[in-house]
Amino acid sequence: MAGKQGKDLALSMLRTLPRVALNNIRNNPGANKPSKRGRGQHGGDKHGAGNKGSGQRQNFMRTGYETGNNPFYLRFSYEPYYKGHHLRREYPPLSLQQLQMFIDTNRLDPSKPIDLVSIVNTGLYDFKVEWKHAGVHLTDEGVDNFEAKVNIEVQWASEPVIAAIEKNGGTITTAYYDIHCLHVIKDVDRFFTTGVPIPRRLLPPSDCLEYYMSAETRGYLANPEEISCERLVLSQKYGYELPKIEDNPNNEMLTQRKDPRQLFYGLEPGWVVSLKDKAILKPKADYLKEFYSS
Amino acid sequence: MLRIVSTAVRSIASHANVVNLTNSLIFKQYPVTQCIQQRFFGAFSSTINKWGNVGNIKEKPIFGQTEGIVPLSLTPVTNSVRTVIKYSRQKGKRKTVKTVLKRFYRLNWGIWIRTYAGRHKHLWKKPEGRRYRLRQHVFCNATQSTMLDKMVTSYWRRPHYYVDDPYNPYHKREEFPLTRTKPKLY
């Protein structure tokens, strides 16, 4: 052992030492608090509170109080920073970079229409309905690297995003989902186990009705002819040649749209899906059919 | 409380029937109702500050008597409370200091912004450069931001994703190497 040095010496010492166990460890310094208050030389005297003044009297001042000064948090005039925040809907962002990544890693299938349900089912996009989150806001981050050709339905999109998707030969729609539908979409499996019929989508509220009816934003309530006109206008504005959807072999997939009352592709409102029996129950009564179609 | 009043009134009524004097009924009703009023406020004195309509109680006619039932010493003194409430009365939760949200705005990276003090005052004697600076919104420093974070609840400390929000470009600091959260794309 005498000849050993450095690492070898340390390891050989470690071999002879006992293993670390409950019987040979001790607390960190200061981890044990004595249950009694010391007197005199045993931590008494000032009891750690210092000499004289605010500290000794332990008058812990309230947050923001400045002992008579005009406090900092009251010093400035009002500004409507948060005005109407309790009414505004929030759209958690999803960037084009992320969308491309979802497609590249087979989380999303570009050969089928992409909607909020399929984005949530990737498990990589999270939103909370109770936080007034109302769906996907597709942002233009990574717009230069976006190459996929998709038929996507999002809740909010800006002009460069629409241009990026249409430049690649894809189509985009902006659609509104009300709060009940969002609860269903948030956890589809759980919803189907409840045995409740698929709800019908409600129309957008007045504050965003214009957005979803406008052809420039590719709203789902807009006139399709106006949308095809706006596609051409946007391609001229951004300077790209608009790929023709009609000549595309995937034409049928790219032009597929949901009904404004429809929640899932292939399923209609009012149907009950039983995952256990692998069956779909459809309403037969006329008043139910009328209700779910209107 | 209603039961107390009804039993009290019933006892008076029975008492009055025995005496058969309607005048004495009205005369005796006064001190009894007053005593009930005092008892009520004594037992629920903590609720006085909570009620917004305490002032109305004084004016409300009780048993036909409109005035002088509530002594002046019981009228609530309303102080505006702007301090942090760490444990609320109903749920035992922290509460936000509302005045902070009226004056400050939190950016998602942790800093708070504010306006300038005196930005609407004596503008006639301030030169153009100073008036321009008064129109700006500026950062609070780290100590102040930490303090303001303590004065609001977690709702205000989490990011909010409003579309078309004028402050959206300022919530991230990807442009500086030290504050960048994601690796830069080349």
TrEMBL record, chain A:
<comment type="similarity">
    <text>Belongs to the universal ribosomal protein uL15 family.</text>
</comment>
<dbReference type="InterPro" id="IPR005749">
    <property type="entry name" value="Ribosomal_uL15_bac-type"/>
</dbReference>
<dbReference type="GO" id="GO:0005762">
    <property type="term" value="C:mitochondrial large ribosomal subunit"/>
</dbReference>
<dbReference type="Pfam" id="PF00828">
    <property type="entry name" value="Ribosomal_L27A"/>
</dbReference>
<feature type="region of interest" description="Disordered">
    <location>
        <begin position="23"/>
        <end position="60"/>
    </location>
</feature>
<keyword id="KW-0687">Ribonucleoprotein</keyword>
<dbReference type="InterPro" id="IPR036227">
    <property type="entry name" value="Ribosomal_uL15/eL18_sf"/>
</dbReference>
<dbReference type="InterPro" id="IPR030878">
    <property type="entry name" value="Ribosomal_uL15"/>
</dbReference>
<dbReference type="GO" id="GO:0003735">
    <property type="term" value="F:structural constituent of ribosome"/>
</dbReference>
<feature type="domain" description="Large ribosomal subunit protein uL15/eL18">
    <location>
        <begin position="93"/>
        <end position="173"/>
    </location>
</feature>
<keyword id="KW-0689">Ribosomal protein</keyword>
<dbReference type="InterPro" id="IPR021131">
    <property type="entry name" value="Ribosomal_uL15/eL18"/>
</dbReference>
<protein>
    <recommendedName>
        <fullName>Large ribosomal subunit protein uL15m</fullName>
    </recommendedName>
</protein>
<dbReference type="GO" id="GO:0006412">
    <property type="term" value="P:translation"/>
</dbReference>
Automatic annotation (TrEMBL), chain B:
<dbReference type="GO" id="GO:0003735">
    <property type="term" value="F:structural constituent of ribosome"/>
</dbReference>
<dbReference type="Pfam" id="PF01632">
    <property type="entry name" value="Ribosomal_L35p"/>
</dbReference>
<comment type="similarity">
    <text>Belongs to the bacterial ribosomal protein bL35 family.</text>
</comment>
<dbReference type="GO" id="GO:0006412">
    <property type="term" value="P:translation"/>
</dbReference>
<keyword id="KW-0687">Ribonucleoprotein</keyword>
<protein>
    <recommendedName>
        <fullName>Large ribosomal subunit protein bL35m</fullName>
    </recommendedName>
</protein>
<dbReference type="GO" id="GO:0005840">
    <property type="term" value="C:ribosome"/>
</dbReference>
<keyword id="KW-0496">Mitochondrion</keyword>
<dbReference type="GO" id="GO:1990904">
    <property type="term" value="C:ribonucleoprotein complex"/>
</dbReference>
<keyword id="KW-0689">Ribosomal protein</keyword>
<dbReference type="InterPro" id="IPR019338">
    <property type="entry name" value="Ribosomal_bL35m"/>
</dbReference>
<dbReference type="GO" id="GO:0005739">
    <property type="term" value="C:mitochondrion"/>
</dbReference>
<keyword id="KW-0809">Transit peptide</keyword>
<dbReference type="InterPro" id="IPR021137">
    <property type="entry name" value="Ribosomal_bL35-like"/>
</dbReference>
<dbReference type="InterPro" id="IPR037229">
    <property type="entry name" value="Ribosomal_bL35_sf"/>
</dbReference>
